[in-house]
Design goal:
By secondary structure, the chain is α+β, with helices and mostly antiparallel strands. The protein folds into 2 domains: about 90 residues, Elongation Factor Tu (Ef-tu), domain 3; about 140 residues, Threonyl-tRNA Synthetase, Chain A, domain 2. About 20% of the residues lie in helices and about 40% in strands. It contains 4 helices and 15 strands. The chain has a 6-stranded antiparallel beta sheet, with no helix packed on it. A 4-stranded antiparallel beta sheet has the order 9-10-15-14, covered by helices on one side. A hairpin with a 6-residue loop joins strand 6 and strand 7. Helix 2 crosses helix 3. The radius of gyration is 19 Å and the shape is globular.
Length: about 240
C-alpha cells in the first residue's frame, strides 16, 4: 500500500519517498503527495526528482490493481527508476490548486441545485455536474449568484470520517446517483462545508471556500428529458 499523504494535508506539495516497484504501468512509491484519478478528479502530474537532481516527469497518477496502491505514470521517454531509489515527489502545485478550488466549488453547486447528481467531472479551471432535475427549471444567472454568495461567506471545509454503518443509516448524504462511495474498509471520508454541504468525498479540497474565488456558470445543457448539465468555471 502507498501512504496517501494528500489525505491528511491537501496542501503538501512535495515529499521524500522510496521507489518500491517499477513496471510497464508506472512507478510505485512507499508514500506520495500525488492524488490518483478518482471521484471525478484527475490525477496529479509533476516530477520525481532523483538524488543527482535529474527528474522523471509524471504525466498521470492512477489507482493500482491492488487495494491502496498508487501508480505514478511517467511521460514518454523518461529515465528509468529502480526499486530502492529515494526520490522527491513534487506535484504541479498551480494545477492541483485549481483542481482543489474547482472540486470544492462542485460541492457548493450540489448545495445550490436541489437534485440528484447523475455524473460529473472536475477539470482544470472548468468543471461540470449533471443533475436529474425532473420538473425543476434551472437559471444560469441565479445559480451563479448563489454560488458566489456562498463563496463570499468563506466557510470552513473540513474532512471527517464516519463508519460504513453510520453512512448506511444516513442515505441522504450520498448525492451521486450513478456512483456510490466506497465501503467495506470500515469507514468513509466525508467533506463538511460548514452549514452548507456534507457528503462523502475522497478528493482534495481547499480549507475555506473563499479560496475558490469568483466563479461563472458558462452554460446549462439539456442532456435528456430529466438531465441537465451545469458547466462552471473559475473566473480568475
Amino acid at each position: 500500500m502507498t501512504e496517501e499523504l494528500f489525505r491528511g494535508d491537501a496542501y503538501l506539495k512535495t515529499c521524500t519517498a522510496v521507489v518500491t516497484a517499477v513496471d510497464a504501468a508506472g512507478v510505485r512509491l512507499d508514500r506520495t503527495v500525488f492524488y490518483p484519478t478518482g471521484g471525478g478528479q484527475p490525477g496529479d502530474v509533476g516530477v520525481l526528482r532523483r538524488a543527482d537532481g535529474s527528474t522523471v516527469a509524471i504525466a498521470d497518477t492512477r489507482k493500482g490493481a491492488a487495494p491502496g496502491e498508487i501508480v505514478h505514470v511517467p511521460a514518454p521517454d523518461q529515465p528509468a527508476l529502480s526499486a530502492g531509489e529515494t526520490v522527491t515527489a513534487e506535484i504541479d502545485w498551480p494545477r492541483r490548486h485549481r483542481l482543489m478550488r474547482m472540486h470544492t466549488a462542485m460541492h457548493l453547486l450540489c448545495a445550490v441545485v436541489p437534485a440528484g447528481v447523475t455524473g460529473g467531472q472536475v477539470g482544470d479551471g472548468r468543471s461540470r455536474l449533471d443533475f436529474d432535475v425532473g420538473e425543476l427549471a434551472l437559471d444560469k444567472d441565479a445559480i451563479a449568484a448563489k454560488l458566489n454568495a456562498l463563496i463570499a461567506t468563506d466557510a470552513a471545509v473540513t474532512p471527517r470520517w464516519i463508519t460504513d454503518e453510520e453512512l448506511a443509516a444516513q442515505p441522504e448524504l450520498v448525492r451521486t446517483m450513478s456512483v456510490k462511495p466506497p465501503t467495506g474498509a470500515g469507514k468513509v471520508r466525508l467533506l463538511d462545508i460548514a452549514g452548507i454541504d456534507l457528503q462523502p468525498c475522497g478528493g482534495t479540497h481547499v480549507a475555506r471556500i473563499g479560496e475558490i474565488g469568483p466563479v461563472t456558470v458558462e452554460k446549462i445543457e439539456n442532456k435528456g428529458k430529466r438531465n441537465r448539465r451545469v458547466v462552471i468555471a473559475l473566473a480568475g
